[in-house]
C-alpha cells in the first residue's frame, strides 16, 4: 500500500503567495483561483488569512520575494542590525563580500552583548536567503573603477545605453524625477554668511529647517504635490489647519527617511493605479531611497552615483528656480512687515510651507523641460532656447527687490542675492547610519521618524485665531473692491478670485443644507 506521507509538500514563495491574494482581489472566484495556482481551498484560505503578514513583509522589504519560509532568525536583533547596515552600504554602491558581512555581523554581535554568536558560512547563506541578497563576484578593475568615482565616461555610457533602455517604453509625460532639498525657512538676508555651507546636523538651526521633496515629469506638464518634512508633528501654527498645498510629515531632525519616502512612493503608486498609468521614476541613491517597497505602477531607475550633479534634472535648475522664487516671496514679506512697522520679520512654518508650495507651482514648464534637456534625457531640439536661461529668468526680476531689502537690513556688501538663494544647498537631507545608531534601532526601537515636541521651535509664533467662513467670504468681497480700484488687472486674477468665491459659496451652501436637514430630522 502506498505511503501517502511520502508526498512532498509544496512550498510557495512570498511573491507567489501575493499573486494568489491579488488574483482573489481582482474578483476571481476562489475555486477558480485555487485551480489556477494548483492549491487546495484550505491553502488558499490560509494565504488570505495571513495576507496582512505578507503585505507587511513586502512593505518593509525585509525578506526577498522568492523566500518561501518566513521564520525569524535565531539571533533576530543581530540579523536586523546587519541588514540595516547592508542596506546603507548597498545604497552607496559600495561592494561587499561574504567575508565582510560576516566580520560586520561579529562586530555588531559583540556590541549587542552576544559572546557565543558565530558568523559561520551557514549563517551567511541563511542571512542571504532571508533577505534575497545575491553576492556577485566583481573583478578588481571594476571594483577600483566604482570606488574611485564614475567620471565623464560613466555619464556618457549611461546616456548611450542604460537611459535609452529605461525610457524606451515611456513618453515624456510618464518619466519623472524626484529629489529632496533642505530649506532654512526663516533665513534672513543679513544671516546669509552664517548659514552658508552649514550641514545642520543638529542644534538651534535644526529648528529653523525643513526638508522638501519635489517630483515632476519630463514634459513639464505635471508637478506633484511637494512633501515637506519638519521637526514638530503638531506645531502651533498648524493647529485647526485641515488643508495644506502640500503633504506634511515630521521627525526629530526634519530629514527624509526610508519610511517617509516609502510612504510617499506607495501613495504615488496607488494614485497611478487608480489612473491606470505606469510611470518611470528616476531617483538618486541616497540612504532614504535604498530599500523600496513593492510597487505595481512605478518602475524605479537609479541615477549613477556621484553623477547626480550633471544627470538629475531637479538639480540642474528646477530646485534652484524654486528657491529663487521662495526667497523672492520672503523678501517681499520682509519689505511689507518693515513698511507696516511689525517687529517680527521671521516667517512661521505655516507661512513658509505656503510660500514653498507657491514657488514650486510657479516654476514654468519651459524651465522644467530645459533642465531635463540639460540632463540629456530628452532631446534638445524640442525648444529653441538654451538650458541656462531657465534659472536666470526670475533672478533678473528680483535684483531690484534684493537691493532694497539689503539696504534696509544692513546686509554686508559682499553678500549678493545668489548667496542668499544657495545658502542652504549643503543641508543634509537624509541620515547615514553608524554602528551605534544601528544598535540603538534594534535595542530600543528608536528611529528618526519620531517627531519633536509639538511646540518645539514655535514658542515665538502666536496662535492664529480661527477664521469663519463668513469672514472669508467678506474678505473676498473686500479684495474684489480693492482690485476694482486698480488699473490693468489681468483677467486671470479675476478668474482665480471667482474660483475662490465659488468654492466658499458651495461650502457655505452645503453647510446650511446639512444643518437644515439635521434640524428637520430632529423634529421628526
Morphology call: globular
Strand order of the largest sheet: 4-3-2-1-5-6
Structural class based on helices, strands and sheet pairing: alpha/beta
Which spans have pLDDT < 50 for at least 5 consecutive residues? 61-71, 136-150, 382-393, 444-448
- The gyration radius over C-alpha positions equals 27 Å
Helix content: 40-55%
Tally of separate helices: 20
Instruction: Write the H/E string, N to C.
Output: HHHHHHHHHEHEEEHEEHHHHHHHHH
Question: How many strands, which pairing sense, and closed or not: the largest β-sheet?
Answer: 6 strands, mixed
Region (Disordered): 445-465
Pfam families: CENP-B_N (PF04218), DDE_1 (PF03184), HTH_Tnp_Tc5 (PF03221)
Protein name: Tigger transposable element derived 6
Domain HTH CENPB-type: 66-137
Amino acid at each position: 500500500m502506498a505511503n501517502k506521507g511520502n508526498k512532498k509538500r509544496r512550498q510557495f514563495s512570498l511573491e507567489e503567495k501575493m499573486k494568489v491574494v491579488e488574483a482573489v482581489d481582482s474578483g476571481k472566484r476562489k475555486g477558480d483561483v485555487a485551480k489556477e495556482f494548483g492549491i487546495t481551498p484550505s491553502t488558499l484560505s490560509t494565504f488570505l488569512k495571513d495576507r496582512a503578514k505578507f503585505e507587511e513583509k513586502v512593505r518593509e522589504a525585509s525578506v526577498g520575494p522568492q523566500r518561501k519560509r518566513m521564520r525569524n532568525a535565531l539571533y533576530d536583533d543581530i540579523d536586523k542590525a546587519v541588514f540595516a547596515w547592508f542596506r546603507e552600504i548597498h545604497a552607496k554602491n559600495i561592494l561587499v563580500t561574504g567575508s565582510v558581512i560576516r566580520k560586520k555581523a561579529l562586530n555588531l554581535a559583540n556590541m549587542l552583548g552576544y559572546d557565543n554568536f558565530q558568523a559561520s558560512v551557514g549563517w551567511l547563506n541563511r542571512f542571504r536567503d532571508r533577505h534575497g541578497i545575491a553576492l556577485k563576484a566583481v573583478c578588481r578593475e571594476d571594483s577600483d573603477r566604482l570606488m574611485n568615482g564614475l567620471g565623464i565616461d560613466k555619464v556618457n555610457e549611461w546616456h548611450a545605453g542604460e537611459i535609452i533602455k529605461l525610457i524606451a517604453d515611456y513618453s515624456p509625460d510618464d518619466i519623472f524625477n524626484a529629489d529632496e532639498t533642505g530649506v532654512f525657512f526663516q533665513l534672513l538676508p543679513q544671516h546669509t554668511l552664517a548659514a552658508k555651507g552649514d550641514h545642520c546636523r543638529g542644534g538651534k538651526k535644526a529648528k529653523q529647517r525643513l526638508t522638501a521633496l519635489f517630483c515632476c515629469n519630463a514634459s513639464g506638464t505635471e508637478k506633484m504635490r511637494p512633501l515637506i518634512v519638519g521637526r514638530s508633528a503638531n506645531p502651533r501654527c498648524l493647529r485647526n489647519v485641515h488643508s495644506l498645498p502640500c503633504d506634511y510629515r515630521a521627525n526629530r531632525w526634519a530629514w527624509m527617511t526610508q519610511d517617509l519616502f516609502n510612504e510617499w512612493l506607495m501613495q504615488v503608486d496607488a494614485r497611478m493605479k487608480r489612473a491606470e498609468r505606469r510611470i518611470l521614476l528616476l531617483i538618486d541613491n541616497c540612504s532614504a531611497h535604498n530599500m523600496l517597497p513593492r510597487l505595481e505602477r512605478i518602475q524605479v531607475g537609479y541615477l549613477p552615483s556621484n553623477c547626480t550633479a550633471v544627470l538629475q534634472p531637479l538639480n540642474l535648475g528646477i530646485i534652484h528656480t524654486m528657491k529663487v522664487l521662495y526667497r523672492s516671496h520672503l523678501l517681499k514679506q520682509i519689505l511689507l512687515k518693515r513698511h507696516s512697522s511689525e517687529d517680527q520679520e521671521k516667517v512661521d512654518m505655516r507661512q513658509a510651507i505656503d510660500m514653498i508650495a507657491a514657488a514650486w507651482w510657479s516654476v514654468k514648464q519651459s524651465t522644467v523641460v530645459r533642465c531635463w534637456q540639460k540632463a540629456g534625457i530628452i532631446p534638445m531640439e524640442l525648444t529653441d532656447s538654451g538650458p541656462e536661461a531657465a534659472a536666470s529668468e526670475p533672478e533678473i526680476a528680483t535684483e531690484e527687490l534684493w537691493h532694497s531689502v539689503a539696504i534696509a537690513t544692513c546686509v554686508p556688501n559682499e553678500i549678493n542675492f545668489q548667496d542668499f538663494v544657495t545658502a542652504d544647498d549643503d543641508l543634509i537631507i537624509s541620515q547615514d547610519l553608524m554602528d551605534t545608531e544601528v544598535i540603538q534601532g534594534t535595542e530600543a526601537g528608536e528611529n528618526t521618524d519620531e517627531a519633536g515636541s509639538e511646540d518645539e521651535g514655535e514658542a515665538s509664533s502666536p496662535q492664529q485665531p480661527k477664521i469663519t467662513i463668513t469672514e472669508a467670504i467678506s474678505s473676498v468681497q473686500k479684495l474684489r473692491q480693492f482690485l476694482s480700484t486698480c488699473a490693468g488687472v489681468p483677467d486671470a486674477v479675476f478668474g482665480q478670485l471667482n474660483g475662490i468665491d465659488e468654492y466658499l459659496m458651495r461650502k457655505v451652501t452645503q453647510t446650511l443644507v446639512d444643518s437644515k436637514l439635521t434640524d428637520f430630522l430632529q423634529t421628526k
